[in-house]
Amino acid sequence: MFNKRGFLKMVVGAMTLATATPALAQDSFPSKPVRLIVPYSPGGGTDVTARIVADGMSKYLSQPVVVENRPGASGTVGTLLAKEADADGYNILFGIQATLALNPSLFTSATYDSKEDFTGVALLSESPYVITVPGASDITDYESFADAANDNMTMANGGSAALLAARLLARQADLNFTNIPYPGSGDAISDILAGRVNAMISSPVSVLPHVESGALRPILVTSSESYPALADTPTADSLGFDGFNVVGWYSVVAPAGVPQDRIDILNAAFNETLADEAVRQKLIDVGVTPSSRGLDAAATSAFIASEVDLWSKEIADAGIEAK
Amino acid sequence: MMDFFQGIPVALQPINLFYVLAGVVLGNIVGVLPGIGAIAAISILLPVTFYLEPTTAVIMLAGVYYGAEYGGSIASILLNLPGTASNAITTLDGYPMAKRGDAGLALLTAQLSSLAGGTFGILCMVLLSPLIVRFSLSFGPAEYFATLFLGLVAGSVAVGGAPIRGVAMVLFGMLLGTIGLDLNSGVARFDMGTPNLLDGLSIVAVAMGLFGIPEVISNLGDRNDGRHAITITAREMFTAFKRLKRIIPSILRGASVGSLMGPLPGAGPTIASFLAYSLERSVGGKKHEFGTGRINGIAAPEAANNAAAQTAFIPTMTLGIPGTPTMAIILGALMIHGIAPGPQLVSGHPELFWGLVASFWIGNIILVVLNVPLIGVWARLISVPRRFFFPVIIALICAGVFGVANSTFDIWAVLVMGVFGTVLRFFGFSPAPLLVGFVLGPMIEEHLRRALMISGGEFAYLFSSPTAIVLHSITLLMVISPIVGAIWKRRRRLAQSKTTREMDQRP
């Protein structure tokens, strides 16, 4: 099929291409696919969100954004991998509240400093946590919830972020319930539906279908602004806990040291993606509230730094030591 | 029931037929290949499903999932390598049958039991879905504890040789299972300072290391290579069908266990197959024949894991509770299309739910139609000199293990487990109870501690429901019946020898 001459042609052609690519790269970033490291398993809520955004991004970058799942150790494995990756803008990390703001204070194995080792690219979403009780429960509003909370209440949580939100609320509202940990909120659903635990704190997305069917009743959301899909549910702030605002967030970060112009290109692409009505709707459908603040890269870094400070202080105040 | 019929036209749409075929064929293939399981294939396919209709997407992903249960038995029987963890138990009787030349019968049994189990599971979905949802919701920490305890006891006394060795293996498996972050306190246990161990050892790495690598190593020195080829004639197949009559009760028992275990989050096909096997060994008679190539020892677990693979969809779809990581990916595929699995799914998207159920049965039929004529071909694989297989098997195991979490660490874990498994095999310990302990150990800890937290430290809470009490009674029965049986036998023997002695003393 190939004769010698044909083979030589191919080699020469390939060499020309190989030398041509770097020349192109100087002019335009990105000139090859961008790798988005997601530190969780495929198919989970975080992964689904990352894929929707990556899919939309590809349009604005004119290069595919490839999701690479590197799950393990509550997101620590993938985050450490991103820290070590080349700081050329082609390696970015899906950074969430748990991995960037909580894990370094919770686990000694999370040997990264989110403020030093990463630089913010864009803030994707902010969603509150919601406290729900079984539909058949006597608890109908915050007042009866607070009464019950001091009477042997059990509160399910599906991860460290939700647990800390619950602890923060308990401290500020002077409530006293027993936290029951589950590996994920999905695992807790059957126990709350059957009433074996009295209440649950979770992201809204995991309970919305059950709230709609009446099987669960929302009591409060933890953000200072009300949550669109649960517009009637009071916020902790409106109940008198001034300024109480605990939100889970999704962001994209890059390893520290990426040239600023590349960060800006990525930031612009993310913010355009988030402004896209079709992408917004898809995110809302999976229960993620897209951020409409359109933060630039520096503001994203500042936001992440403020969250790192807030949570490391809260974790220290709660007397939790890194393990 | 009527709803089910509205799903048939959906499943019969050409595009859905095409994707169910693609799904089950792919599932069957990854099932046969040791190490590469449904989860790796489904993760790779997930992005493809963005461009499909949600019903079609789920039909394909589901096809991969239950297709792997079919394919998994083939490698278990022929090569003593479980294709997936839920087929590990099938090696116990499947491989001895293949060794003595009954590979064709063993494969036929596995395929037909799979079909029967799958059909049983689908019937349960169609007729009993609301009941099954209520049953799985009734399972709290106490009921889980009882089930898992039964599983552990069954795993030690009823799987493989001497009970004391079984207990040792189960306990060691539980110990391996404690590696990683503790859920309640966040303490890292036995992590050796590496973040790779914080989530524990990968189950694929443990299963492949314990079953796959030792099989390869211990056969390396086997010079007697060319095992005589097995040809299966149509007449042999026909006689095989006749022999299959006696496995019907085993299939029914296995499928019932599987249908009940499938919807329980965390349990799934693997536990279903373990429990079905030990139940079969306890009630199916001829206990001593199990483990030497008894056909019922294939039928029960294969019916169970396929029934469980079907009923596992009930809580996933109707409650939004994914029982296994694979189910979580299928949920993700639905969510990306803006469909929130939950109580409204069946009423809000009946075409999706019932179309999926109808496609299950079509997929099951396709799998049997594909595999049964190929049994002769599969069986001939056994006559291929093993030295050609080994490099391929090792490569596949490494690729499959790596594929689960893109982690090279897991490949090293397979190697370490493989060396350990070889030592165990040398001293005659069965790896199956170890796998039981490894899978169930962390779960029983989680549920025991949760039960005690919810009840405020009351141990009585563990016995607070009829389900839990019934399960604990079965466990107790399982422990004491062999002891009582042994005492009874000894008494009779003593009595007999006494009478003979008395007779001797007569003048």
Automatic annotation (TrEMBL), chain A:
Record keywords, A-Z: Signal
TM segment ranges: none
Origin: domain of life: Bacteria
This protein's record includes keyword Signal: yes
Keyword 4Fe-4S belongs to the record: no
Stored InterPro entries: BUG, Bug_dom1
Record's signal peptide: 1-25
Entry similarity comment: Belongs to the UPF0065 (bug) family.
The protein, known as: MFS transporter
Organism expressing this protein natively: Sinisalibacter aestuarii
UniProtKB/TrEMBL annotation, chain B:
Keyword Transmembrane (UniProt): yes
Keyword Cell inner membrane: no
UniProt keywords, alphabetically: Membrane, Transmembrane, Transmembrane helix
Chain ranges of the DUF112 domain: 17-435
TM annotation in the entry: 20-46, 58-83, 103-132, 144-177, 197-217, 319-340, 352-376, 388-405, 469-488
Protein name in UniProt: DUF112 domain-containing protein
Organism: Sinisalibacter aestuarii
